[in-house]
Amino acid sequence: MEQEVWITLRFKGSMDAEEDAPAAAQKLLTHLENHIMAGGQDHGFMVQQNGDVIEVEEERHIYGTAEDG
What we know:
Blueprint: H1 21-37, H2 59-62
């Protein structure tokens, strides 16, 4: 018997400060979805609805370490 499952993932990493963090997050999500739909690593999860990037937090906004650009 199958059940509907919602999985929330949170990653912490780094990237060039000049890059667009929301665009990078969407690109990462797309790559992960493609990996899952291709069979992935035998995880047993099947995507039924595309994921959403809900929040992107950047160090410069959290800690006020740089001006917006």
